[in-house]
Write a structure and sequence with these properties.
By secondary structure, this protein is mainly β. It has 2 helices and 20 strands. The strands form 7 sheets. It has a 3-stranded antiparallel sheet, with no helix packed on it. It has a 3-stranded antiparallel sheet with strand order 2-3-4, with no helix packed on it.
């Protein structure tokens, strides 16, 4: 075996795509301090994965389903709220799951059903979808040269490789006080807070990633005059995440999700509850990646020693790219009762199918929405409907395994008549694509016997270039250097065409 010189390639590779659905069911008991339930109006769910554990042959997900339940009390018919957290566990078993894997994942609620068992007990069933992509970092020694006696000739190719430097997850806290506009009746209680993180800047410094952004909050409350009101709050956040080895030229993949919302009604200097303190807990997951372009040999031969390259095929992640888009859905809806006021709208976007069409990712799905409204008779009612949608995200020529996440950034309505309203939903799409590529590398060289046809070589050889052949193919066949072949024929490598007569500069 000839002596070879090697270098180490570091790269990420995809180790599996796992999409799963699970049923999360729980009985919700009304707290002792809250009144009995007369009627359930709406159940608003959200979910997140608290922890992912990958072991040999198994992935385990520890998740949490957060339920906001609105109901009418049996005592006085007023609107009440219960918040319930349901922890769930799910696992996937497959022989080829690698314990070294890291996960990219998205969890979403696809469906919610509920039933009133009695005035103190509610049964809730929810379908949670988990999309998971596993990534493993690898190191591979590849041949980049050989001892001088071999006179190794190599065909080199530029390749792009991405490998993960590190990842970390932290909790970020944001707090803000919001004051009611002048003239508005003081707050009695908060009914619902919709919070959405809006990252604005990601900066990578030495061993750290700085994340900054804001959290938009839409707050529904009831005043002391028993009227419904809305407040908007904008909370800013800035925090750093420790990632040893991170440097400013690298890239970062950021995933942010709101996991807890706490509101506190505060009295002003007059003793009236016109202030609301909003505190948000958000989980930020950061993955730092380095992408480098390398030139490595993908084929080789020797002009002095007969060698055969031992080639291995690798499937590598070239890059992890994120694409974002926003689309607006409009629909008119006729309510079963005469409308006095629209109180709240909640929407769950569900992706049913997607496909690549040229440079676009076509996404189809359903919007499940629930409207809470006040009738002319001052009764609270809900109406639930589905609306199909079709949208696209421009992704260029990037192909590979992907994760799709959708959330509603804004819901508005306009009253058309006493029964009809126009709904408008702004939906934000986020697509992560693991761009993959195939790569051939030389992992070793093997010395072989002299082929019989090479034992009696002519001193002068003229070869006619065949269709689809390259000068490299000819140089390798006759074991001459590519540079000598080009010089002997006064050629430019990219100008060789089929039918051309090539003089082979044979060595004696």
């Amino acid at each position: 075996m000839p002596q070879v010189y090697k270098d180490v390639l570091e790269f990420d590779l995809a180790k599996g795509t796992y999409d799963t659905q699970l049923l999360v069911e729980s009985d919700v008991i009304v707290p002792e301090s809250d009144p009995d339930v007369l009627m359930i109006l709406a159940v608003t769910p959200r979910t997140y994965i608290k922890e992912t554990l990958v072991t040999e042959g198994k992935i385990q997900f520890e998740g949490r389903l957060v339920l906001d339940i609105l109901y009418l009390s049996e005592k006085n018919g007023e609107l009440e709220k219960i918040e319930k957290e349901v922890d769930y566990h799910h696992e996937i078993e497959e022989d080829h799951i690698d314990r070294r894997s890291r996960s990219l994942l998205v969890a979403s609620v696809e469906n919610i059903d509920y039933k009133l068992i009695n005035s103190r007990k509610i049964n809730v069933r929810s379908v949670v979808k988990i999309e998971c992509r596993l990534i493993v970092s690898e190191r591979k020694e590849v041949v980049v040269g050989a001892e001088d006696s071999v006179r190794m000739q190599s065909l080199k190719k530029k390749v792009k490789l991405t490998h993960t430097i590190g990842q970390n997850t932290v909790e970020v806290f944001a707090k803000e006080k919001v004051k009611l506009p002048e003239g508005e009746a003081p707050i009695q209680k908060v009914i619902r807070v919709n919070a959405m993180a809006k990252p604005e800047e990601v900066k990578i410094t030495e061993n750290k990633v700085i994340v900054q952004g804001n959290i938009q909050c839409d707050i529904l409350y009831i005043s002391v005059e028993k009227q419904f009101g809305n407040l908007e709050a904008n909370l800013t956040y800035a925090n750093f995440v420790d990632i040893p080895g991170a440097l400013n030229y690298m890239s970062a993949n950021i995933q942010e999700e709101v996991i807890d919302v706490v509101t506190t009604v505060i009295a002003d200097e007059k003793g009236e509850n016109t202030l609301l303190e909003v505190e948000i807990t958000m989980r930020v997951k950061v993955q730092v990646m380095e992408t480098e372009e390398r030139e490595i040999p993908v084929d080789a031969y020797g002009t002095k020693v007969y060698i055969q390259p031992i080639i291995e095929n690798l499937s590598v992640i070239e890059n992890v790219e994120t694409f974002k888009s926003q689309f607006v859905v409009k629909t008119n809806l006729e309510l079963p009762s005469l409308l006095k006021k629209c109180v709240d709208v909640h929407v769950i976007p569900v992706v049913s199918d997607y496909a690549i069409d040229g440079d676009k990712l076509i996404i189809e799905g359903i919007l499940n929405y629930t409207i809470l409204y006040l009738t002319e008779e001052e009764n609270l009612k809900t109406y639930t409907e589905e609306y199909p949608f079709k949208t696209f995200v421009e992704i260029g020529d990037v192909k590979g395994s992907m994760l799709i996440d959708m959330e509603v950034s804004q819901s508005t309505y306009e009253v058309i008549s006493m029964r009809e309203i126009e709904l408008k939903f702004a939906i934000e799409s986020r697509v992560q694509i693991l761009k993959e590529g195939e790569l051939e590398v030389i992992v070793d060289l093997k010395e072989i016997e002299i082929p019989r046809e090479e034992q009696n070589r002519h001193s002068i050889v003229i070869y006619i270039l065949q269709k689809d052949e390259t000068l490299w193919d000819i140089a390798k066949r006759y074991r001459v250097s590519l540079e000598d072949l080009i010089a002997a024929n006064q050629l430019e490598e990219d100008k060789a065409i089929a039918g051309m007569k090539i003089i082979i500069p044979m060595e004696e």
